[in-house]
Amino acid sequence: MKLGLKTQILPADAAAVAEAARCLASGGLVAFPTETVYGLGADAAQGPAVARVYEAKGRPSFNPLIAHVADLASAQAIARFDATALKLTAAFWPGPLTLVLPKTAHCPVAELATAGLDTVALRIPAHPVATALLRAFGGAVVAPSANLSGHVSPTTAAHVASDLSERVDLILDGGAVQVGVESTIVACLDEPMLLRPGGLPREDIERVLGRPLKRLPEDAANDDDKPLAPGMLASHYAPHTPVRLNAVDVAPDEALLAFGPAAVNGGHAAKAVMNLSATGDLAEAAANLFGYLRTLDAKGARAIAVMRVPQHGLGEAINDRLRRAAIGR
Questions:
Q1: Measured between alpha carbons, how far is 300 from 91 in angstroms, rounded to an integer?
Q2: What is 110-151 written as a DSSP string?
Q3: Most CB atoms closer than 10 Å: which of 30, 126, 156, 252?
Q4: Which CATH homologous superfamily contains domain 243-327?
């Protein structure tokens, strides 16, 4: 890739969305907001454009990408939906749920985007800018998080520019995102299986299905050689500063990522303190997670000490991201 591209950052109005759709059609890269995080978009059908996404992110080419579409009819041209998959789409699309499904015979998504698998990851995002862009473009758009691979995911246009300025053609600035963690990924290939916790709590999905989701074995969940879905590399979402989990105390040269009203030993003397949610609200914590990690990463601390976050609801997704961040770079 030629670095030094002149990256446009435009307020996400109708004119900018139209310009972004033209950019995608010409093989360009467009970062845009979804309700989960900002995505780095390219035409899913153009192999060279998909290759630019991997190159811009420094992303391993074996890691598959999610294809974003505007509606169910577009999704059904790409993948085969069984009754279970259709039940989930009726309940949760548009929204922060990605389904991994068998490809159709004439799936238009480039092989590079599916990492050579027989399956494809699909989602209909629930964000007005994403919806407008997908409708204006008229095709599927692959859009992993718009950050350098393995780094903290972006929840504002400024985060995207910090990582990818001069690597992408255009950034649509739609303000801060609402959910703040990536989509939940469920495979509908046999029995529905949770591949990645995310912005849709597992409990909500199980309530619709009327049964528990299967769990991926731990060795498969962290298989860096052949991940089954996006966001499954063992080390992922990582700041440059080391992350220490389940902290009950903090040293003066550490930053503290707190949660809830409880204090920790040494918290008053920490190099920096940010609280994901002082009231213990998991939705607020998810929305703040990546932005706060980025802010603390810039404080020059020896480590980021993270207080315990409950495992239920959105806490499952928050803890998944923190665990992968703590593995390191």
A1: 44
A2: -GGGGTT-SEEEEE----HHHHHHHHHH-S-EE--BSSSTTS
A3: 30
A4: Threonylcarbamoyl-AMP synthase, C-terminal domain (3.40.50.11030)
Q: Which residue has the tokens 């992110």?
A: 57
Residue 49 structure tokens: 């454009």
pLDDT, residue 1, reads: 40
How many residues are present in the chain? 329
CATH of 8-221, one of 3.30.70.100, 1.10.10.10, 3.30.420.10, 3.90.870.10: 3.90.870.10
User: Which residue positions in the chain have pLDDT lower than 50?
Assistant: 1-2
CA angle 66, 227, 203 (to 5 degrees): 70
* DSSP result, 243-289: EE-S-SB--TTSEEEE-SS---BTGGGSSEEEES-TT--HHHHHHHH
Q: Where are the domains of the chain?
A: 8-221, 243-327
- Strand runs labelled E in 163-225: 170-173, 184-187, 193-196, 214-215
* Residue entry with tokens 């963690």: 181
- How would you list the strands of the sheet with 38-43, edge to edge? 8-11, 170-173, 30-33, 38-43, 141-142, 66-68, 119-123, 97-102, 184-187, 193-196, 214-215
Q: What is the pTM of this model?
A: 0.86
